[in-house]
Amino acid sequence: MDHRVSVGDDVALKIDGPLSIRHLRESEREEDLMASADRQAITGGYGSLNGSLHTFLSEVRTDLEQGVLSPRVLNDPDLHRAELDRIFTKCWVFVGHVSEIPSPGDYVLRYVGEDQFILVRDEQGEIQLLLNNCVHRASPVCRAEKGNTSHFRCPYHGWIYKNSGEWNGAPYRAKAYRKLDADRWGLRKAPHVDSYQGLIFACLDPDAVPLREYLGDMCWYLDVVFGLKEQGMRVVGEPHRWIVPSNWKSGAENFVGDGYHVQSAHRSLSDIGLVPTERSAGLHVSLNNGHGVLVIERTVPESFGATDFPPEVASTFELDRLDDNQRAFLTRHSVVGFTIFPNLSLFRAAGVTEDGRPTAVQISLRQWQPRGPEQMELWNWPMVWDSAPEEFNRASYDASVFSFGPSGVFEQDDTVVWRGGPTVGRSVFARKGMKLNFQMGMDGMSDYEDIPDWMGPGEASTTFFGERNQRRWWQRWSEALAAS
Ligand code: FES
Ligand SMILES: [Fe+2]
Known about the structure:
The chain is 30% helix and 26% strand. By secondary structure, it is of the alpha+beta class. Fe (ii) ion binds next to helix 13.
């Protein structure tokens, strides 16, 4: 137990335990306050969950074992606050791609939960994630969405920070701040930033496990999408961003396993031949930590080589970087989607001619950014390989925009149906006992079984007709919220 009590400026007491109260020396007090501020800002400062949320979350876990879930999860303000506090400050969260900040000084503005950060490559080439708030009076120090700079100068009183976050000066420093301890007044930075296959993640928890451990078996699937050669995958332009009147979890949950909705929500696209009428040739891979992958049988014939790309692109890949099983996977399967808990997803699909020739491969990273309990900001990064011909990349980019851009034909289908989450969560009638159904594939409900000798890590299912990935995503969500 550790509480501080202040009375005015002069008296400071620290309660170390129920019977131990002592005065703090001034220096000790300052250190103590700093440490407390660090803990509060980095590991969450909203205190413990109230009892009713704890009770609700334990009901969620019990419900999920029965394949049901309360609609309250899709709009409750207390749960939303707890998500920011306990998921977005504890998990590794995607913040950008290395191709967005290739040179020292390159920066872009990014979010972890609802907090805005500067993702920047400093003068030493290290990637930093800096809270975009001045430590003097909290003004944003960076107001451009992207750029290149060696320093950030706060517009309010002019404090200056290096692009590594260190305090670097202030106007009239000799008159105003002769004794300021510069080492203590840098921009607050994420304690952990790391990347895997070019994807940059940050974690605000000082005690985080390493990124590779957090991703776990998801690394195997990231390799077969992004690891076909050492470098060369890049995002095209800036991420598209738009507001959707839905809870962020609807997107994360959809991309972790919902192959079932395609025949209905996207029916008009199968009617005109853009997607197959039935997607039974797909499977789920359930991974640890709430991550999950959607896999389909390849739409491009094996004769085109062990990827979905045309020969002139495929010949630039270094497939010896993959293991035998990963290469075998590529000859038969494609990753069509995934979610990395909490809020990063992927969509990937190959466009083919009638004889199976690849015309485009669209690869988009998608992030479901929370914006209050009833809104999300959707971010979409179309990606291409540098080694592909410009014309092929243009077609791939156009396909990304056409399908999952702000006006994309798939996008509109999905974002219309996800609007139901906030409205049912708001409904007092729905709260009186309504449960959402997550039972597909449970207990003989379908032919959803494990493939006994799946070539990759994780548990792979025989069909899309199940919701194990979604149940596990929600299980992970409820455990993350309930964790102390
Ligand atoms: S708020 Fe930044 S210098 Fe004052
Ligand atoms: Fe969809």
